[in-house]
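Lab notebook, design round three. We kept the backbone fixed and only want residue identities now. Task for the bench partner: fill in a sequence for the structure below.
Input structure tokens:
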């Protein structure tokens, strides 16, 4: 689908981590990103590249207003709740934002004849069919999400696919593996609160602002005993959304595509990379395994190349960690004022 230069693309959740990086990439492509965000976990300071609309995706009136006001031609849908642990405690909330919210969005798009959607899905849709397997995961792999969060992502995919068939929308669900890194400018980056992702937690531990890191289990069947994950630079993720926005799909077409590198990195390898960047050890201890943590979550990314022509360009561990460190050193938004601390302590 060709989206002409200057067209407006709504980015729900565009004040969040991946959404803000994608808004930048959309603007650099000559399109206008219209950020629609409730700011429940995102930051107004992360919105630089287009109009901002403060709204909740569960609010049909606000959505309709934003789609109409800005004459939106396509939607990239990031908005939602993301903390796996919280989804266990509050599954109702996750279904409300992630599934009901997606229903409201799809209805508003249909009413406004917006016919292209790119959806943030997740590797959390896959199950542990083959516990302990180190094999890369293809899209057709068994789905049995280990958390309510993963279940909401799979349910939203199914909802979108059914609405594509029923109403002629065309959509791509991108199943990201581990999003990581930051824009090299240091202007935007990862600022989840609470932060649950390994790389920012390792920086926190190394720079003295956070607790020592706990490594959850060193008895997995991997070379160093710690879990393997597939880290994708957030800039590469952003470019995957651009490819998904413009890929030719039939009316009513739906595709689900893994976005990963195909290479698994262990928790200890990531800790070593952060230590190298900072120039000091990351303090950590070994804890128990977490329930439901698979040994390995590594993408088979071949479909992303075949369908979208996408392959990662910046997703080596050292580039990811180097760009994340640049963000940690910048006058960042979000919790903590690490920039000043780093100047005095490193
Ligand atoms: N970060 C990862 O590693 C990762 C991996 C796989 C999938 N994902 C998916 O990518 C998407 C973005 O993740 P992120 O890491 O950027 O998270 P984030 O929390 O930084 O961004 C989410 C944004 O959505 C907004 N939001 C939440 N609920 C909303 C609602 N009801 N209405 C409007 N706005 C709302 C928040 O304010 C925030 O700006 C999520 O859908 C997540 O499930 C993330």
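Proposed sequence:
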């Amino acid at each position: 689908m060709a989206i002409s230069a200057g067209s407006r693309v709504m980015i729900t959740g565009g004040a969040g981590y991946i959404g803000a990086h994608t808004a930048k990439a959309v603007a650099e492509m000559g399109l206008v990103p219209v950020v629609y965000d409730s700011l429940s976990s995102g930051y107004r300071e992360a919105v630089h590249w287009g109009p901002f609309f403060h709204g909740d995706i569960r609010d049909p009136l606000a959505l309709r207003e934003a789609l109409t006001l800005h004459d939106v031609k396509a939607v990239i849908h990031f908005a939602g709740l993301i903390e796996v642990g919280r989804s266990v405690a509050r599954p109702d909330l996750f279904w409300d934002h992630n599934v009901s919210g997606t229903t409201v969005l799809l209805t508003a798009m249909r009413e406004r004849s917006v016919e292209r959607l790119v959806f943030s899905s997740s590797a959390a849709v896959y199950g542990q069919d083959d516990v302990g397997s180190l094999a890369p995961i293809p899209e057709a792999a068994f789905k049995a999400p280990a958390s309510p969060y993963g279940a909401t992502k799979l349910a939203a995919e199914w909802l979108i696919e059914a609405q594509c068939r029923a109403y002629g929308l065309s959509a791509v669900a991108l199943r990201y593996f581990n999003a990581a890194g930051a824009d090299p400018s240091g202007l935007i980056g990862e600022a989840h609160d609470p932060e649950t992702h390994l790389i920012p937690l390792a920086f926190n531990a190394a720079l003295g602002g956070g607790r020592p890191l706990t490594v959850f289990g060193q008895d997995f069947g991997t070379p160093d005993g710690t879990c393997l994950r597939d880290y994708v630079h957030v800039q590469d993720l952003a470019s995957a959304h651009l490819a998904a926005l413009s890929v030719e799909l039939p009316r009513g077409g739906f595709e689900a595509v893994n976005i990963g590198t195909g290479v698994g990195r262990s928790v200890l390898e990531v800790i070593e990379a952060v230590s190298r960047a900072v120039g000091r050890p990351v303090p950590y201890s070994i804890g128990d395994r977490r329930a439901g943590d698979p040994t390995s979550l590594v993408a088979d990314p071949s479909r992303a190349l075949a369908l979208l022509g996408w392959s990662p360009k910046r997703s080596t561990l050292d580039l990811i960690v180097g760009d994340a460190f640049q963000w940690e050193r910048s006058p960042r938004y979000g919790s903590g004022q690490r920039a000043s601390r780093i100047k005095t302590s490193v």
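Keep this in mind before ordering anything: Residues 17 and 190 are 5 Å apart (CA to CA).
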